[in-house]
Amino acid sequence: MGFQARDKTPRELQGPKLPVSRLTDEQLRSIFMESDINKDGVLSKKELKQAFGRLGALIPAFRAYCVLHHADANHDGVVDKDELDELIKYAYRLGYKVT
Ligand SMILES: [Ca+2]
Ligand SMILES: [Ca+2]
Hints:
Domain EF-hand: 23-58, 67-94
CATH superfamily: EF-hand
CATH topology: Recoverin, domain 1
Largest sheet: none
Protein name: EF-hand domain-containing protein
Oligomer: single chain
GO molecular function, one term: calcium ion binding
Organism: Populus tomentosa
Pfam families: EF-hand_5 (PF13202), EF-hand_6 (PF13405)
Radius of gyration: 13 Å
Order of helices and strands: HHHH
Structural class: mainly alpha
Bound molecules: calcium ion
Number of strands: 0
């Protein structure tokens, strides 16, 4: 059984693909902040999926799942500002960083 991304958003709706190898901590942070589409100050799974889509992840839905598993310290299903640092650290570990 493989993991498949079901709802494929057309690339043009996700914005330009970013050069992931050049992202700094601040850029990563601003990408995640911009991905807070409904501006409620927290990142839902859907918003995380968008963020990882922008970062060029092969399977954004899977990344969003992993990130929530690692960064959602209070287990409310979303990443808030306090958890954002952990999210960025995790994104770094995945290779979304300056090399
Ligand atoms: Ca949000
Ligand atoms: Ca949380």
